[in-house]
From TrEMBL:
Matches recorded under Gene3D superfamilies: Globins
Domain Globin residue range list: 6-160
Organism: Seminavis robusta
Name of the featured protein: Neuroglobin
Example of a GO MF term: oxygen binding
Family stated for the protein in its record: Belongs to the globin family.
Keyword list, A-Z: Heme, Iron, Metal-binding, Oxygen transport, Transport
A Pfam family assignment: Globin
Amino acid sequence: MHHFIAESYFDVVTNVNDTWARVKALPNYREEFGVALFRRMFEVAPDAWTVFPWGRGNKNDEDMFKNPEFLKFARRFTEMLDMAIDMLGPDMELVEEQLTDIGIMHSRVGVVPRHYPLMGACLIDTLADKLGPETFTRRHRDAWGATFQFMSTTMLQGAFDDMKRKLEGGGKKNGGSMRHSVL
Ligand code: HEM
């Protein structure tokens, strides 16, 4: 029984790694993937623009997608996914700690819980789009769904704990230490 469960978790990680390796083989994948993902994201969540420093005061127009700050962020975001995927498996404690901190930073810049499932759906649609249905099958979709669920739950846990500490008047965790706290 335990063996069966361990095997299915292994499958999830394998499926995510396999599909991600294929994305990484695409030309200029960092920028292309990040841009495609955020194009979708801003379509389904137009308000999400406002949480990005380079998005404030702008409309969801083509100029924005050429903004060097946006392109830089799109590349960084893909790199971050890359890192998180690399970390899946061997040392979950480390990845959980980092996601918790990233979650706190996100709540401070104005990312709201609703944005997470939207981002998850956009991520999966972007993968499906880039890889095609032959490569990105139902089980890959499920594996990514479970993985994104884990990442966003861990990030939100960090954000909620941070809020709780504040409400209780406790000390701040990582106050001001994230590079991009803008609010
Ligand atoms: C599992 C989901 C997510 C992960 C793992 C993640 C990860 C990250 C990381 C690592 C950074 C820091 C990049 C850097 O400074 O080098 C970042 C920045 C940021 N993320 Fe996310 N993110 C996620 C979801 C979201 C969502 C849903 C939104 C909102 C629409 C969002 C908005 C932002 C913003 C506004 C920044 C700061 C941008 C800047 O200062 O240039 N993220 N994210």
